[in-house]
Specification:
The complex is a heterodimer of chains A (411) and B (194). Chain A is mostly helical. Chain A has 16 helices and no strands. A four-stranded antiparallel sheet of chain B has the order 2-3-1-4, covered by helices on one side. The mean pLDDT of chain B is 85. Classes of the chains: A mainly alpha (411), B alpha+beta (194). The interface between A and B is small, with 9 and 10 residues.
């Protein structure tokens, strides 16, 4: 069987170009944005440099992580419909260690560099005179931040490799009989169960508090972690769908058909609504309660330079997928699904942008070369990592015990 | 409307599917296939057109949205403006939960009623059962006899295609809102599966 995936020249060129743009932007940022001008916040460009890096690294890190989360939840639920494109998940999962290193370096620089214009709680002087922050000092400090980030990123990378390796081993095992497949499944279940516990403690609770919510350290919301989770999950599924469509177009994934595409579309549709539900829950309770220490978060987003983004966020991430994906036929249309996926990834990037920026650069937001350049760089890294996995591994796991269930999958 | 039907009983999905395809090829009028559980792909094999139920649901939902927003807007902003905790007279975020509820309510109830109408169901209505085994362990294929159809030929056709029990029944179809003698457009004619 000769259907090994060969990288098309155009694909290679585009990810090289994206990574090139990313590195060039970073160098230009070092030259023009004065990243080492100090954390006092007087130099907006200096703050902007680090804020953009934090926004992009956390966003793309969580996005890549969704691919692994998707394998895990379907394994734990004994779901088999995704077996036909499971290798695409694994390809994205293989980028997690790379992403984790990049993210950790950026967060390390921010925290060790004492950038209290990004994370206000890093400013020891201010914390000492601030009763609220003094109270939170046991949790919001550099040690907890870096330690927790390191442990979580390491465990994601480790378990991702482990689950990938299991699936890779099945290629050599030949067709499995009942006992072997039971053992294989039990192994998968074990590591998936470890992962889901870590996921619950990280993305679904503590990690968004540390990475994003602590940018506004006086403000808090109990919805925040779920809101972040929903945001990254729907965008992660969109990215997964894009790669599924890409590999399908390359003649791989012979068992993937419109039934699988429709279910991926359903995921995007449902979780766009879920995201909106959480977004609205967070907004309405604060708006209705009208307590100044809570409304301060939305005041900076609803009034002033972020107003446009605030509404754009809702239109792009809710109304657009809601209306475009309502019909079954539109979820089975490759072109439309590609379009909506790209829009969703962009929309949630904007969502992360408006989570990070109002608390860091305040009323001087920029949305120009540096922001988009860095984002393209991260896209390039993901494309490179997925490609690196795909040239080495057959894109259909032919011995997966659930493959038959996936082939006969019917909506 | 009183109609005559030729009813064939099948005991296996594997026999049923080719038979369904054969019916469409032979050009008999397929009334319906009754199965004890939802059979994947049967709708496609029968060539059923997609239901318009969800379009109806969307319209009902839109009605709910407009009734909720319009109703609350008129009551609280136009007819009798009240000040609730210093909020504006048209506080859209506060209306969203109720709007959502009304949207779901109208589209849910509307779709149930539409479903009943399309299937000619209603509490208390006795529908004709072609075979009690359709709710237990057998697949019942029902062919409708039209002006030109030959009963013996149809029976032989069903027997040839694996039906184990074949009989003819007379039943009344439809009772609601003048649907007695109107034919439903259930099947799309294009794309006959070979």
């Amino acid at each position: 069987m000769d259907n090994r995936y060969v990288t098309p020249a155009a694909y290679k060129k585009s990810y090289m170009a994206f990574i090139g743009i990313g590195i060039l932007t970073l160098i230009l940022g070092f030259v023009f944005l004065n990243p080492f001008a100090g954390a006092h916040g007087d130099n907006v460009n200096s703050t902007r440099f680090w804020a953009v890096l934090v926004q992009n690294s956390t966003y793309w890190m969580l996005l890549v992580n969704v691919a692994l989360f998707f394998i895990v939840i379907s394994t734990l639920a004994q779901g088999g419909w995704n077996a036909a494109f499971r290798r695409v998940n694994e390809a994205i999962t293989s980028v997690i260690p790379v992403m984790a290193i990049i993210t950790f370096i950026i967060l390390l620089c921010v925290v060790v560099g004492g950038r209290y214009d990004i994370y206000h709680w890093l400013d020891g002087e201010a914390v000492a005179h601030d009763e609220l922050l003094n109270h939170k000092k046991g949790f919001l400090n550099a040690g907890v931040f870096l330690g927790f980030t390191f442990v979580v990123l390491f465990l994601w990378s480790y378990l991702g490799r482990k689950i990938n390796k299991l699936s890779r081993e099945s290629d050599e095992m030949g067709a499995m009989d009942f006992e072997t497949s039971k053992k294989f499944n039990a192994q998968n279940l074990k590591f998936s169960a470890y992962y889901i516990v870590i996921y619950l403690l990280s993305v679904a609770s503590i990690l968004p508090w540390l990475w994003l919510m602590s940018i506004d350290p006086h403000w808090y919301s109990t919805m925040y972690s779920w809101y972040t989770f929903a945001s990254t999950f729907v965008a992660g599924i969109a990215m997964l769908t894009l790669f599924v469509i890409y590999f399908k177009n390359q003649g791989q994934l012979e068992y993937v058909n419109k039934e699988h595409l429709q279910d991926l579309g359903k995921f995007m549709f449902a979780f766009s609504i879920f995201w909106t539900y959480l977004w609205f829950d967070q907004f309405m309770l604060i708006w209705y309660g009208n307590i100044p220490e809570e409304t301060v978060y939305f005041k900076s987003r609803l009034q002033g330079p972020y107003k446009g983004l605030f509404y754009l966020n809702l239109i792009v991430n809710f109304i657009l997928p809601f209306l475009l994906f309502m019909k079954a036929a539109s979820k089975r249309n490759y072109a439309l699904v590609t379009f909506v996926s790209i829009v969703i990834i962009f929309g949630h990037w904007i969502d992360f942008y408006q989570m990070v920026m109002p608390g860091t650069v305040y009323n001087n937001p920029h949305l120009s070369w540096f922001e988009f350049g860095i984002a393209l760089g991260f896209v390039g890294v993901i494309m490179w990592g997925v490609n690196r996995f795909a040239v080495k591994t057959p894109m259909t796991a032919l011995n997966d015990p659930f493959l038959k269930e996936s082939i006969i999958h019917h909506v | 409307m009183i109609k005559s039907f030729v009813v064939g009983t099948f005991e296996d999905e594997k026999v049923l599917f080719p038979a369904v395809k054969q019916v469409r090829k032979a050009g008999y009028k397929l009334h319906d296939v009754y199965t004890p559980y939802p059979v994947h792909g049967l709708d496609k094999a029968m060539g059923l057109r997609e239901t318009s139920l969800h379009t109806a649901g969307f319209i009902y939902g839109l009605m709910g949205t407009m009734i909720a927003i319009g109703g609350m807007g008129w009551i609280f902003a136009v007819d009798w403006p009240l000040n609730f905790g210093g909020k504006p007279h048209f506080p859209l975020p506060a209306y969203i939960p109720i709007t959502f509820e009304l949207t779901v309510l109208l589209s849910g109830v509307g779709m149930v009623l539409t479903y009943c109408y399309l299937n000619q169901l209603m509490p208390g209505v006795k529908k004709h059962h072609f075979s009690p085994r359709a709710t237990d362990d057998a697949f019942i294929m029902v062919l409708e006899m039209t002006a030109g159809s030959n009963e013996e030929e149809m029976k032989k056709f069903l027997a040839d295609n694996g039906a184990i029990d074949i009989n003819t029944q007379v039943a009344e179809e439809g009772w609601w809102f003048g649907r007695y003698d109107r034919d439903q457009k259930l099947y799309r004619e294009k794309e006959v599966v070979a």
